[in-house]
Amino acid sequence: MGSKSAQFLKELEAATAHIPNTPNPAVLPCSGPRLFVGIFFDGTGNERVFDSKQVKADLTWLKDSKERQQNLAHENLEQSLRAEAEAAAAAERARSDVRAYQGEAEQLRVQADQLMSERQSLGREITRVRVMATSGRTAAERASGSASLGQLHKLEDRALIRLRHLSMTLKDVEERARTAEQRARQSDVERRRREEAVNQARRDCYPASPGISGLTNVAKLYYLNRITEFTGNDKGEVYQKIYIRGVGTKEGKGITTGGTANLGLAFAAFCEGAEDRIPEARQEMLDILTNVFSSWGSMPSSVTIDLFGFSRGAALARHFVNVILAGLPDMSQKPVPVSDESLPFGEMVTLPDADHDKHGGQNNAALRYPALANVSIRFVGLFDTVGSIFIPGNENELFYDLGLPTGCARNIVHLVAAQDWREYFPLTRIHPGDGEEIVLAGAHADIGGGYQLLEKCALLMDEEYCGSLSTDLVNRQGPFVIPQDREQRARQAILERARGKGILSEEGELPPHWHFTLHWEVSHDAVPVVHFYVRLMRDKLTYNGYANVPLHIMHRKAVDAGVPFKTLDETDPLHIVPEDLQHLVDNPVDELPQDLWEKYVHVSATENRCVDRLALRPRTRFPYSIGMQLDPSGSREIYPNKLEKDGSKWPLVQALMQAGL
Predict the structure, then answer these.
(1) Which residue among 508, 542, 576 closes a domain?
(2) Helix (H) and strand (E) counts in the chain
(3) Which of 263, 315, 328, 584 is 20 to 30 A from 300 in CA distance terms?
(4) pLDDT tens digits for 122-144?
(5) Is 23 domain-assigned?
(6) Residue 114: domain span
(7) Which DSSP symbol is given to 511?
(8) pLDDT tens digits for range 295-319
């Protein structure tokens, strides 16, 4: 270190000589309490706001509104069926008119053909008689031929008139037939549109619950954590807790939208990102230590910390483990000047106020309290750790350290999702290293919680190309202008594949909630056309009750480790484990039977294409949502726990500390 920095530290030491190395004399010193702190980092887009109205709405929906909505949906279905029947009747009338006009036109063509044949016969007879009239051997023969020739010409003229009349009539009938055909096509398009409305009405008979999300397991555990006043209980114990809302959320407002706030949601960075959440957690911890010091006149005799996190919140919880390991400040001791060597990343520091200008406004003129003794991490409970900080989908988390060193905590439990395959949701394990890692059936938020009571999503099961039309035609007449026979052939091809997979019933019917739909997309060729596909879709109705299985598992393991949680209320809708899932609390599995998968496991990855044709458990849902796409490998990216710190990850911190020294 150069003479400049040495002189600076000497001056800083002199400037702080007046700070006593004792507690505040205005507060009578006493033996410090034992401090217990629970720290809860929620997942991306989640917060702890307990919406009692939403819970009541869900319960009401389960008891009453669901039935009312279904009744309304059935009424709508009946109306749609009537409209479809009317459209079908109109289409049948139009087709009947077409058949009638086509039959009449066919009869006129037969008559015209007969007249043409008759006229041709007359022409041949006229030729024969003309020869006889001009070359007869006798005058009588020639006179007879002339008389016959006149009569034949009259017959020919009448035949020509009749033929012209028939031609005009035929032209009129054919025009009416074409008009009827156009009406029939329009009626058929309307019938098919009504048929699609009926299909939608049938799907509406199975509605999703109100709301879009619920409390995560981290938020539920936060509410279960005990708390006392800073004066402590009769055992000299102080219990406090800290809740850190998920990245991408604003306090009391849920998910952020607009401007740079979206960056916190997408990248866990910048506004409402990790840069905000970690300082918030630091400050909350400092406030607790300050309040204990003010209330007791001394620092805690010991600090026991429990940390919980879900998703990116689990990543931040892991980083905060390293913040704690770097040292909590002992405010009863005299601060010492900070040098770049004495400031590990994540260390809590105090910045001088009065002496700031004295040292030329150097922002890095900082003091550090010595590390507090007897600080330990008792329990780290993680729900499916996902980093994806700044650049989603890789393991470079900038200056955030997700590594859990050996011996960093007495207990570490990591619950991992077995069925999440999204590209930007890679898993960071706790192994190699300490702790218990349990792989559970379900997607990311099936483990961490947060889904609405009953979600309804569409799964793309199969598709078949059925033709292309010009964009002008489709713009004029709508998508159902595609010939129905092509659509039927495409449907039949899909049904044959489904039959081969054993999906159809003995009667050849699709399972409940499976349905066909017509899909179209515009090509981006030089001459754009519309490509049509028949798609086999499947509505998946998924309850959120399975997330309470991981909740109970984590709660039990935390309580066994000594975490001061209240008992789970088995009558509380937020805690209830469905009866058909209760056995999984004691015996968790990484894959559920098909019936339970159908009922409880969510499909999280999204795609606009059919990825798993006719699979009973497809990996993707429809439609595509940005940031939620399937990993190109078709499986989940998994990163190991890093036991050793990578000093090269902290260039910004090193640069900050070296500036001006």
Answers:
(1) 542
(2) 15, 19
(3) 315
(4) 778 777 777 766 776 677 766 77
(5) no
(6) 54-204
(7) P
(8) 998 999 999 999 999 998 999 999 9
